[in-house]
Amino acid sequence: MHIPLSVPKNKEREYEKNFQTATNGTGRMMMFAGDQKVEHLNDDFFGKGIPAEVADPEHYFRIASQAKIGVFATQLGLLARYGRDYPKVPYLIKVNSKTNLLSTEYKDPFSNSWLKIEDVVRFKKQTGLNVVGVGYTLYIGSWYESAMFEQAARLINEAHQEGLLTVIWVYMRGRAVKNNEDIHLNAGGAGVALCLGADFIKIICPKDGKGKQKTAEFKEVVKAAGRSGIICVGGSKQGAKAFLQDLHDQIHIAGSRGCAVGRNIYQRPLGEAINMANAISTITLYNYSVKDALDVFEGKKILKNNN
């Protein structure tokens, strides 16, 4: 672990505590992503093939409190409504979000910040909840990227001043972007987030036209991130075996330092969702094989710390 120089001496212990909590002492982050109620509206929570219980926002919290995760990322308002009943979960507060209604065909994306670090710190103190960090979405290639750079840079610096971790969601978006899954372009995006000072960078690991993950090529993105850890986007729900294989390859071949998974966990009944989160953690945190992780998902094996 490298403590950034933007963390003052009197906050280094707090930063280290938050880092160890979010990574379960492994240096890798298993983020349970719960910011989609804004980002995707109700599309992920109601409809064909989605279990009825997923429509209840508390489904998020039931999973986060019962599964082995690193940190649960969501907006402060949702946490304010449910956090009292789930005080032991490690939380990361997402300070900006936007809906998916306006495509770049109409306007380049800009996700304006909802909160300042002082709001997060005040909330943490008054509730006693285990808030370990903050997250921010950055759209590189947007006409408005400079405004988001300023917000992200200030957020990261001020978060570090309080000993909080920072995760930057990086998406290559805007009418100037011809292919937002281009490896070289995403490596550039990872480098930008590093220069802003991010602790972890949430970014997509692209696939080819046949749906095969570009694992070897993705090493360029990981190297570009330097001392900022790459955590890969979970994406749309897919079969457990295929998802766990991709995750394993992201970490153990490409060298990423974790994952940020939402739909592949919460778009399942509670028991299955908990098992999937545990299976993801076995690979991300404890170096299980895909076969052993699949056994955890299927309930044939119990997650145990291999470290």
Any overview of this molecule?
With 307 residues, this protein is α/β, with parallel strands linked by helices. It has a single domain, classed as Alpha-Beta Barrel (TIM Barrel). 40% of the residues lie in helices and 15% in strands. The protein contains twelve helices and eight strands. It has an eight-stranded parallel β-barrel with strand order 1-2-3-4-5-6-7-8, surrounded by seven helices. β2, α4 and β3 form a beta-alpha-beta unit. α11 runs antiparallel to α12. The radius of gyration is 18 Å and the shape is globular. The mean pLDDT is 96.
How would you sum up the global shape?
globular
CATH architecture: Alpha-Beta Barrel
What is the CATH H-level superfamily? Aldolase class I
- What's the number of helices? 12
Identify the CATH class.
Alpha Beta
Uncertain parts:
none
Order of helices and strands: HEHHEHEHEHEHEHEHEHHH
Number of discrete domains: 1
How many strand segments?
8
What structural keywords apply?
307 residues, alpha/beta, TIM Barrel, eight-stranded parallel beta barrel, 40% helix, 15% strand, globular
Short description:
The chain is an alpha/beta fold. The protein is built from 12 helices and 8 strands. The longest helix is centred in the middle third of the chain and has 17 residues, at 145-161.
How does the SSE layout of this entry go?
Elements: H1 12-22, E1 29-33, H2 36-39, H3 58-66, E2 71-75, H4 76-82, E3 91-94, H5 117-127, E4 131-140, H6 145-161, E5 165-172, H7 183-196, E6 200-203, H8 219-224, E7 229-233, H9 240-254, E8 258-261, H10 263-266, H11 270-286, H12 290-297
Parallel strand pairs: 1-2, 1-8, 2-3, 3-4, 4-5, 5-6, 6-7, 7-8
